[in-house]
């Protein structure tokens, strides 16, 4: 029987390399091939072995470098020719990362795989910007939704989402921000609901814009929003000044101790 390597679907966390799991770090050390995305901090790739093949399949907004079927084909090709293949994705690989589609393709071809979860920007990224997704008095739950749905797929029902309690976290939503704000307001969400945009969470250039749902669009237009960015709507945002902090172990220091 033909043997094949194993594919590790690894979450690279939200950006700060010290937020990677030990297992993810181990996978990267052992990898013969790493196929990585745009949101992966390139410093992580410095942990790879010298002879490891690094393949960038990063998709920039509006500039789709490598189509999904080619990424799948790359995974299958390398799985048949190498031992350890790491498919490295930003955040958690199963949170809007098409990770499941890639694993389905491995399952079909009977390629062994393992999933290494990562800290999602939608939870951990917000925490590092002073925003707890839940709070006993302010939010008894949270919803993480995409602001960008595949063409032909059913669009989000923002008016329905407006009626839910708890924190609303929107990934990939900046391009659609005018529509999202309008629909949430039309759905009955109060314009006074605290809201924020968190850019480059956990990275050195992390920025947070806090306002209310009613002022979010105009503030965002003034603020020159740069991707990647999360939109958060909910009472927990009101805690963000009080709960924000400067991380003591910075990416740079962590890197120095590693090398
Ligand atoms: N799997 C990833 C999400 C992939 S979808 C995760 O679990 O975090 C990509 C979207 O995630 C981006 O468009 C942005 O909305 C959000 N995102 C990812 N990393 C981010 C970061 N460091 N700061 C802010 N938003 C981020």
UniProtKB/TrEMBL annotation:
Gene Ontology BP terms: cobalamin biosynthetic process; methylation; siroheme biosynthetic process
Pathway: Cofactor biosynthesis; adenosylcobalamin biosynthesis; precorrin-2 from uroporphyrinogen III: step 1/1; Porphyrin-containing compound metabolism; siroheme biosynthesis; precorrin-2 from uroporphyrinogen III: step 1/1
Keywords: Cobalamin biosynthesis, Lyase, Methyltransferase, Multifunctional enzyme, Oxidoreductase, Phosphoprotein, Porphyrin biosynthesis, S-adenosyl-L-methionine, Transferase
Domain Tetrapyrrole methylase: 6-216
InterPro entries noted in UniProt: 4pyrrol_Mease, 4pyrrol_Methylase_sf, 4pyrrole_Mease_sub1, 4pyrrole_Mease_sub2, CobA/CysG_C, Siro_Cobalamin_biosynth, Uropor_MeTrfase_CS
Any Pfam family the entry gives: TP_methylase
GO terms for MF: lyase activity; oxidoreductase activity; uroporphyrin-III C-methyltransferase activity
EC number(s) on file: 2.1.1.107
Family: Belongs to the precorrin methyltransferase family.
PANTHER family: S-ADENOSYL-L-METHIONINE-DEPENDENT UROPORPHYRINOGEN III METHYLTRANSFERASE, CHLOROPLASTIC (PTHR45790:SF3), SIROHEME SYNTHASE-RELATED (PTHR45790)
Protein name: uroporphyrinogen-III C-methyltransferase
Gene name, Swiss-Prot/TrEMBL: cobA
């Amino acid at each position: 029987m033909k043997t094949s390597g194993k594919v590790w679907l690894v979450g690279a966390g939200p950006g700060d390399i010290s937020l990677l799991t030990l297992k993810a770090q181990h996978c990267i050390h052992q990898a013969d091939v790493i196929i990585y995305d745009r949101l992966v901090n390139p410093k992580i790739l410095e942990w790879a072995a010298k002879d490891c093949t690094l393949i960038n399949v990063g998709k920039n907004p509006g500039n789709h470098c490598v189509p999904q079927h080619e990424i799948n084909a790359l995974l299958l090709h390398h799985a048949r020719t190498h031992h350890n293949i790491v498919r490295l994705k930003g955040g958690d690989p199963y949170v809007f990362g098409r990770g499941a589609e890639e694993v389905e393709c491995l399952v079909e071809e009977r390629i062994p795989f393992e999933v290494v979860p990562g800290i999602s920007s939608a939870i951990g990224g917000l925490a590092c910007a002073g925003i707890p997704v839940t709070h006993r008095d302010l939010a008894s739950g949270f919803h993480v939704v995409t602001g960008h749905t595949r063409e032909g797929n059913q669009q989000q029902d923002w008016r329905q989402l407006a009626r839910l309690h708890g924190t609303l976290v929107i990934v990939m939503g900046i391009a659609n921000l005018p529509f999202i704000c309008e629909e949430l307001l039309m759905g009955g969400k109060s314009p006074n609901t605290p809201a924020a945009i968190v850019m480059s969470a956990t990275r050195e250039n992390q920025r947070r814009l806090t306002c209310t749902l009613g002022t979010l669009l105009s503030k965002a237009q003034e603020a020159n929003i740069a991707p990647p960015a999360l939109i958060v709507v909910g009472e927990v945002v009101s805690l963000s000044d009080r709960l924000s902090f400067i991380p003591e172990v910075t990416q740079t220091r962590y890197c120095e101790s590693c090398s």
